[in-house]
Amino acid sequence: MDEKAVSWQGVSFAYGAVPVLRDVTLEAGRKDFLCLIGPNGGGKTTLLRLALGQLRPNQGTVRVFDQPPEAARQEIGYVPQHFQYDPQFPVRVLDVVLMGRLGTEQWWHPFHRKPDIAAAFEALNEVRLQDLAHRPFSRLSGGQRQRVLIARSLAAQPRLLLLDEPTASVDAAAESMIYELLQGLNERICVVMVTHDLVFVSKFMQTAAYVDREVERYAVKDLTDRMLRRSAAQG
Amino acid sequence: MPLADARGSELERLRIIGEANVLQKLWEILNLDFPLRNSLYASLLIGAVVPLVGVHLVLGRRVIMAIALPQGATLGVALTLLAGAMCGVNLSDQAHETMFFGVALLGALLLMALCLLWEAIQHARFAIARDAESAGIYAIAAAGVMALAASRAVPELGMLNVLSGEILAVSDQNLIWLAAGMITVTVVLLWLRHALIALLFDPALMYTSHAPAKVLSFVNNLLVCTTIALGGMSAGPLCIFGFLILPSLVLLPFARSMAVLYAGASLVGLLCAFGGFYLSYLQEDWNVPVSAAQLLLLGCAVLISRLCATAYGLLRDNAQARAQTNGNNGGAAEQTA
């Protein structure tokens, strides 16, 4: 049987008394590109946080490579929705990418080891930013920063990449470059992405999961106008 | 004319005496037999190490907590003295010096742990802004310190000196403890710097990674609190606050890497610690507390840093504009050719 990269089985979740997800069943295979669309507050980010092990479901189970999410953290790369940083924080691009290696092993090591540096450069190479490795992070454009964050998540060499609206604050050129990059990555790893960009979804995806407390997986051509309007209006 | 000549030669004589005095005082300080050498060494340790952990508070946007924690530590010391007095032990006695150091350190750490715990609970449960909570802690701790320092319940142990930042008497034993503590803090901080920097840069990343974010957060707080407790007992809360924040502010406009920020902040702190001590010793008549002189120097360093940053920005902009102009000119010349 094909091992699933991530699966949510009968998952329900509520923030206190506010229900967010109800009896959700969804899964993604090892080479799937799963897009989560839907209105704000529908539970898309919550699904990702459940897969990261940051939240625990009230009901149901979440498995990542057939393990509980906490046990599979080394297999997961994550690019957050809102990344707030201090522009005066004196870190170089390479430093940021190397942070992604802390989750793998020997986080207490006082010096970066050769395999860590090699993996960081490989990840930078993948997002085509190896030439900017020694540039201050604050001097990059929004699109470049987003690619650095993707490189950081790739530095740990994950088998599952979770992205929460990775193109929310970048221009159109950077957006298409990021999508192209993600499609390339999807040849070897599973990508699960929250997005409001329905142009990308309709152009490149066969299916998408519409998340609004409950989850339905649709062929893109079957998404109704109402669903598209609700998703796009909040993007 | 003879009167003017006489006045001129008297002024010249005074200037020469003044210069000789300046050099003589410097020589006295640098002499290994200098009577206040322990205070000087304590100052230098504080100047070099406190800015290192201060970098974490500034980059972690915990500046208000940086002023609240030293006050909390001082309140812990005062409460320790009070508890000792209530138990019939006069900790200010020379015979209890080592015991006082250990117990006061514990008291300071406990109070700071309570401050951090209170702030974290209030923030988590009621979503109260951390800065507001920290400022509240500062006000309460400062009031408590003032009340205890002024009351007769607490035995006099130079509490007022500590509050005014006057580093006078540091015993050999206390200096050894201070040095051991500061060196330990430095080694742990530099050893774990990659993980601690990542925690400051993007806490969310750490909480989603395999690294033990909670342990690292605890270690970070422990380093900050230990440094503040050790330094605060020798130099007072205001001095520690200054050394936590100001060296980072001097370096931030220029630092392009964390290594530069750490090393630069530590060096600026060290130089200002020595300079402040020297100025205070030189101007005995003014009776300027050591810490005040050190902080004034740090303030001057911040001012110079800002002026340099402005000039550097202008120069950089000019250089970029010049390069652009040269590039355009070169392109035009090529086209012409």
Q: Your description of this structure?
A:
The complex is a heterodimer of chains A (235) and B (337). Chain A is an alpha/beta fold. Chain A has helices spanning 44-52, 93-99, 114-126, 142-155, 172-185, 198-204, 225-233; strands at residues 4-15, 18-29, 33-37, 59-64, 76-79, 160-164, 190-194, 207-212, 214-219. Chain A is globular, with a radius of gyration of 18 Å. By secondary structure, chain B is an all-alpha fold. Chain B has a single domain, classed as Orthogonal Bundle (ABC transporter involved in vitamin B12 uptake, BtuC), CATH 1.10.3470.10. Chain B is built from 13 helices and no strands. The chains are: A alpha/beta (235), B mainly alpha (337). At the A-B interface, helix 2 of A face helix 8, helix 9 and helix 12 of B.
Overall mean confidence score, pLDDT of chain B: 81
CATH topology term of chain B: ABC transporter involved in vitamin B12 uptake, BtuC
First CA to last CA of chain A: what distance? 37 Å
| Strand residues, percent of chain B | under 5%
Helix content of chain B: over 70%
Instruction: Tell me what portion of residues of chain A adopts beta-strand conformation.
Output: 25-35%
Regions with little confidence, pLDDT below 50 for 5+ residues of chain A: none
* CA radius of gyration of chain B: 24 Å
Question: What would CATH call the homologous superfamily of chain B?
Answer: ABC transporter involved in vitamin B12 uptake, BtuC
